[in-house]
């Protein structure tokens, strides 16, 4: 059953040095506040898994949390490069970063396979491309019925999944609406799940019977962090801070400006700082 | 279109976007890449293809954004969509399931058979420039009925040999797609700021079939890193109409206001 904890206690309890950690959210519901807490607590040698290692992993990689990255698209969406990711891959700063690279279809299928308890994911893909030559985890299986050769990748089974969601009720059941990404799959694929939420309510409220609800018994810890997805967003609460994504390009381009920004806004700040972003970007009720 | 429809001056990028938009119809179910394709697909929807189904890989189906999204998952896409599915469902049922008629991709490095590199410049293990990687492109390219690519043309991006094949277009040409068991058409149009390429029916080499007004063949040769081929009959692309330009400019102006609003 999900335990309600402060974000600091939840990260301390669930995330260990050397863990495989998947911080997910496909543009929407990216748990930035939780990632900042991992950075503040100085976790090291993590294998970070994420389809789109955007700003959130640029920050974790630039602060030296990661030994390895498993990913399928590493950019600042609509803006350009991830400068800290590039610096780590090209120059080993602040430490060398091993990479295991996939395409989106592979990662999405690998999370679904992890949630389904399967050892690998199978799909039609990776045809004619160079990635299988540099990633030994991309292989082929033959369909026993048709003989078709299909792509296979290992299931993703992270030690820890970290996601943001809209709200939890007092029993720890969590509601996700809007762009779903792989939030459900990564929580069900992981050994332990940490979920940050915008609010905790008595009742999840009116919703479709098919709404995405993660039962409390699938989650290890829930932390209340209003605004905790910023500069990503929470459907119905606040908008994506596109100006921040545009501005990140300058902040992250240079090691010194990046380090200074992280000191002020992460190392010397706390999860409470996120509430102001939520107020500034609030969606009209 | 007649010359009377065009009175406004326009940029090369506007020309490219308008020609890209014209490639789409109301009957299309289109998987939209971010950047230039997104502008083109929404221009099509706001002009001649009001019933086009636009799909972004974040899972938003039949979305009708009033401003262009910065990312493939802006809230605007979900708010205006018919329905929003998970990312595994998007890639498995909708893309791999063969429900999408056309994929519209942006480029990075491209070769004469419209294979794409968005992974690395230089060796994979020691890249000179690390690019974002595959994203959805490899499977978009093989699963959509056909593919349009749009990108500005230069020797830096139109290269004789890719450093890395991220996304398989026509491979080595000819029947290479069929030999790999791929049943879709692959890249059928490459739209640049200078011209339009289409694959030669036999060799599948991307061949110039239409040249934009005011551009000559030498400009195209100078901006292409392989000996570029021209079709037997090369058309002149019709310039953007005032309606197309005004619709596109309004869209960009709304987008700029929306993205700057939060600073």
Automatic annotation (TrEMBL), chain A:
Q: Which SMART domains match?
A: CoA_trans
Q: Say which domain of life the source belongs to.
A: Bacteria
Q: Please name the Pfam families in this protein's record.
A: CoA_trans
Q: Known InterPro entries for this protein?
A: CoA_trans_fam_I, NagB/RpiA_transferase-like
Molecular function terms from GO: CoA-transferase activity
- Keywords, comma-separated and alphabetical: Transferase
Q: What is this protein called?
A: CoA transferase subunit A
TrEMBL record, chain B:
Which ranges does the record mark as transmembrane?
Answer: none
Q: Which ranges form a coiled coil?
A: none
A single MF term (Gene Ontology): CoA-transferase activity
Under the heading InterPro entries, the entry gives:
CoA_trans_fam_I, NagB/RpiA_transferase-like
Q: Name one Pfam family in it.
A: CoA_trans
The family database entries (Gene3D superfamilies) matched by this protein are listed as:
Glutaconate Coenzyme A-transferase (3.40.1080.10)
Source organism's superkingdom? Bacteria
Specify the protein name: CoA-transferase subunit beta
Species: Rhodoplanes serenus
